[in-house]
Structures are given as structure tokens and as C-alpha cells.
Amino acid sequence: MTIKAFYSFHYIPDNWRAGTVRGIGKLDGNAPVSDNSWETITSGGDAAIKKWIGDEMKGKEALVVLIGKNTAGRKWINYEIQTAWDAGLGVFGIYVHNLLDSAGEQTTKGSNPFDYFSFGSAAKAHDSAYTSSKYVYDDIATNIDSWAQAAIDAR
């Protein structure tokens, strides 16, 4: 049985990297949102965004935070983390800074977003020992399902 997951990430700089991780296919994730759909959602204000997040998290077992350079401390990332935690989902993160973006570039490592929460140490942030994008991808592909299961089991 495939684990159902909600992916959380900073869209503008990390959507390509998020697509790369989603493409691994070991978790049943929430569907990507097109730019036009997201504009429609955000035009409804904070209440519409919260509703969309709540609707998308229904039936999920885990929250995967894809951690890029500027992910930590962002309003909606924090909201998704807290909402998932309060709902009893397994919560974990994966650093994606060494995966290539659409321009073939890596970036610098960001802060751990779980450090902003009292339960922070209970949510693991996984950082590959590799620096080559190919090896980082392989590491994530090999381990993402076991990281998700460990996060679920920890709850």
C-alpha cells in the first residue's frame, strides 16, 4: 500500500525540485497545482488558502516538507506543518538544495523549518550525504518511503 502524502515546499524557487521528488512515485502525493489554479485559490484570501490546504490534507498520512534555501519560516509552510502535526500526520522533511532546478543549478542549504516548532525534534529533516544531484536523487528515491513510514510510526 502506497503512503498518501501532502507535499509542502516554497513554490517559486523549488517547484522544479519538488516535481523531481514527486516524480519518484513512491508516495501518493497531492496533485500539483497549476499557476492559474493557485492564482484562483489565493484570490480568495487566507480563508481560501486554508480551506484548500485542509481539503488537500484530508486522507493523507504524512506531510513531506521539501526544504530549500528559503523554506523555513514561511507563513504557509508553517501553517501546513502545524496543521499536519495537529491532524496527527507523520511529519518529515527532505533537503532538496542539491537537486538541480530547471536551469541546472543547485543552491545553498536552508534552515530546518521544524526548528520553529516545539515538536521540532520529533520531525526529522533528512539531508543526503551526497552533493551530486544524481546521487542525492538516488538517495531520496531509495529512502523516501521508509522516511515517510518512520514519521507515521513516530506519531
Structural features, described:
It is a single chain. This protein has 155 residues and is of the alpha/beta class. It has a single domain, classed as Rossmann fold (3-Layer(aba) Sandwich). Helix content is 43%, strand content 14%. It is built from five helices and five strands. Strands 2-1-3-4-5 form a five-stranded parallel β-sheet. Helix 4 links the parallel strand 3 and strand 4. Helix 3 packs across helix 4. The longest helix is centred in the last third of the chain and has 22 residues. The chain is globular, with a radius of gyration of 15 Å. 35% of the residues are buried. The mean pLDDT is 95.
Report a brief summary of the structure:
The protein has helices at about 10-20, 35-40, 45-55, 75-85, 135-155, and strands spanning about 5-10, 30, 60-65, 90-95, 125.
